[in-house]
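Look over this today:
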Amino acid sequence: MLRELSIRNFAIIDDLTVNFYDGLTVLTGETGAGKSIIIDAVHLLAGGRGSLEFIRHGARKAELGGLFEVPSSNHPIYAKLEEAGVEAEDGTIILRRDLNDSGKSVCRVNGKLVPLSILREIGSSLIDIHGQHENQELMDEKQHIHLLDHFAQDELRTIKEQYTSLYDEYRSLKRELAALNLDEQRTAQRIDLYQFQINELQEAALQINEEEALLEERKRLMNFHKIYERANVAYEAISGEARGLDFIGNAMNALEDIVELDGKFKEASESVASSFYALQDAAYQIQHVLDDLEFDPERQNEVEFRLAQYQTMKRKYGTTVEEVLAYYEKIEEELMQLLNRDETMQQSEKQLLQMEKELAELAMQLTVIRKENAERLSEAIMNELRVLHMEKATFIVNFKELEQFDSLGKDEVVFYISTNVGEPPKSLPKIASGGELSRMMLALKTIFSSSDGITSIIFDEVDTGVSGRVAQAIAEKISDISDNSQVLCISHLPQVAAMADQHYYIKKQVEDERTYTTVTNIGERERVEEVSRMMSGAEITDLTLQHAKELIEMAHQRKKR
């Protein structure tokens, strides 16, 4: 859950640190005080889209930080952290995001720099934000099947994994078959191209390490005259008329004659003898090489031609010999497939039919499980809606079979609802009002909150447009959700504020011609005054204070049940 939120230079917030606790935390204040700005900050901290407009006027960057505690080692967040290479000590996770005036974001998780996509993925496992205009899952019919599958996740998991694995293989095979189904002209063109390239590569017959050897040989051929001339100089200096070797031989013999007379000459004698025999060997080696040296201009032309072949093949088929040879193997295999296209297509079509049978069987199992759970979900939602004073509502999960398989099976799932007696159910997005959608969302959150794994749920004015007993029902429902997850709620309803375990008052003030937002954790007396203000909308009277006390006391009594 979110334990601490720090905000600097964000919109009208200068420097703010807020501590949060378990249960239900309600944030109230006058319109424009900055309540939604705090939610915007949390949204960005969880990887939402940033904007330069969020940076406080005159500042170079906005800084956001959040400290979360996730004590359960089984929470899915830990797998995501491990995948991102982030360590989490003692169940503490710190998210940080800086928005710079250059337009760039710097994101960190537990001090490690991460891309925005990783911050968003981790943030989505920690925070779930719902606003009065953000019921996208309910408004998007394509998301309804995901909500149903979430409800039935324990029963669906094994079959769904099997289906997904097979469906991925099925799609891959279909793509391969589509590639084989190219028109005849394109197939013939590709066969001709591959045959030409294969013949060219076979004629070139490139070999690993041959090019390096050729380069060495070319260097010798291009410097033949220099090599021959300098080798002769070396040989003549050792064994030619200068007789350098004879002088060293004389020195060796002379030293050998006196070693027995004076042992001090022994080391020098051995060194000279060693040099004599080494030079003698060198002279033989030089003479042997000189005898074999012969300038062959034809060989030089052959080497140049062969090296040119290597350059041509690398320019056309790869930057290295290894890449060229790998390309040869690839097109040789593809040519075989094209030449045996009819046989390959028959085998693939047969395999595809078998896969479709298996997919159909798995998809049917998914449908059966979904329909069984759809009935339970419908009953659970209607029970929740009755508590939220939508007693006349009828909710059903409508199924339609798709013509083709998709990644989830062959089911099209759409939530249908009727809010008035005698009216047939219709698609939820088409007929539900804002207040009804909010109650639908709260019903789903109540059902899912115990298994979602989300540590913090934020409601941003989802109670707008309701009053009376509906407002009280929504307040109680939000309180129920806070039994399983930490809930932060911005609200204008006194009923919701009365349910708070912690109540923060948000105020805007002007100092030195600058606007600042402050957040205060108010006590019981201030809570009564704030709830009274929310009830009256203007002047606080003894009567509204008394009503506020009663409302808060009723909330306390309910929480004790």
